[in-house]
Amino acid sequence: MSGDSIPNPPLSAPKGAPRMRSGDRRELVLEAATEVFGAFGYVGSTTGQVAAAAGVSQPYVMRMFGTKEKLFLEVLGRALGALLAAFRTEVARDSEVHLGRRLGGAYVSMLSQRGVLLSLMHGFVLGSDPVIGAYARAGLLEVYALLRDEAGFSPAQSQQFLATGMLVNTMIGTRMIDEFDTNPAARELLEAAFPDTLNLYTVLGGSEHTT
After folding, report:
1. 69-128 tens-digit pLDDT
2. CB atoms within 10 A of CB 126
3. 100 near 157, Cβ under 8 Å?
4. How many CB atoms within 10 Å of residue 8?
């Protein structure tokens, strides 16, 4: 798929598509793009796949976003915004439960938003890309700033939290939950990484196993 922009004529709903506001149609495409990019990554995805998942035409997606790169950046921004909002909700909430545990639970709960965490991970591995890499670095530093300045974590605590989050993403991406019932090492690693949220991860990860 070429990254060249194409002209942007006024948008109209694809033939046969239900009538909805342009903002709602945009969100529909972004939800579909989040799932597609989360599943196949930036390089492995096409705007045609996104269009098919959203139930619209590929030219319609291109008129709306211009290029696959711009669409991916919007997906990353949307995912980052959802993550920061979930963390800020926990920071502001009055609870006796340790904030680090609550932030971890909020992070894992985002598995219910299909593709969000994995699309972020795909963005984070594109550091050599001059546009996406710069955007991903800025996003990760924004999360770090929230942990340090708003959650009150020390640099070491922030590093540990982010490291655990990257491990969580790796286990999601490799579907480690599929090995839970058959591989003792996989069970041990999952239980260590999800001491408070393993049931949630199990359910959202697609396994029928419950503890």
Report:
1. 999 999 999 999 999 999 999 999 999 999 999 999 899 888 888 899 999 999 999 999
2. 19
3. yes
4. 11
Instruction: Specify whether the CB–CB gap between 104 and 166 falls below 8 A.
Output: no
Q: What is the DSSP code string of 46-73?
A: -HHHHHHHHTS-HHHHHHHHSSHHHHHH
Report the top-level CATH class of 22-173. Answer: mainly alpha
Q: CA nearest 118: which of 16, 39, 27, 11?
A: 39
CA distance 75 to 146: 20
Confidence (pTM): 0.83
Tokens of 53: 């998942």
Nearest CA-CA partner of 69 in 1, 137, 117, 3: 3
CB 98 within 8 A of CB 19: no
Span 117-164, pLDDT tens digits: 999 999 999 999 999 999 999 999 999 999 999 999 999 999 999 999
